[in-house]
Amino acid sequence: MSDPERRGRRLFFMIAAVLLLDSLSPLLLQFWLVFANVAWFRQVILPLIRAAAIVWLWQGERFLVWPVAGAAVVSGLGDLIIALHIGALFLTPLLQVGGPAAAGLLKNFFGVELFYVVWGLLKITAGLLLLSPSLKAFFIARKFSLLMAEAGRRLESEKATEEPVPAQPRNTVIRHP
Fold first, then answer.
1. pTM of the full predicted structure?
2. Alpha carbon of 93 to those of 51, 80, 83, 90, 111: distances in Å?
3. Which end of the chain has fewer CB within 10 Å, C or N?
């Protein structure tokens, strides 16, 4: 494996961890907390499709790079927009009230808000890094190695099922009519 392929593999593991955590954690929380009010398509099927797409990327399916990268960037931008919108809605009345109580709320608010902003930026970065040349080299090498392994398995299975050809003695002369 060459340097770009190794770098792409390490990069893919980091990106896959972020994207799988992003897609599967809401699913697990949904089942754990409020199982009765599950929106099956949006909260169960779509996260499972996103997780399956990431697994298929590991198998070397390069046609999924752009959809997964686009979904990660759009999801990260959505997180940033929501964080900024909630920030604007929350900060306006808080700044008007003022006082020590507002300072404590403001400290708690910025911790949560900062988490959403950082998580959104991390998802955008992961989506953009999926388009890097190192990952392209890794996906090509991964697909090639899987195809070669499959070809080897097929060759071994054909050898096992193949009937041996009866050997002709070398000193026999074949005569034609």
1. 0.72
2. 40, 21, 16, 6, 18
3. C
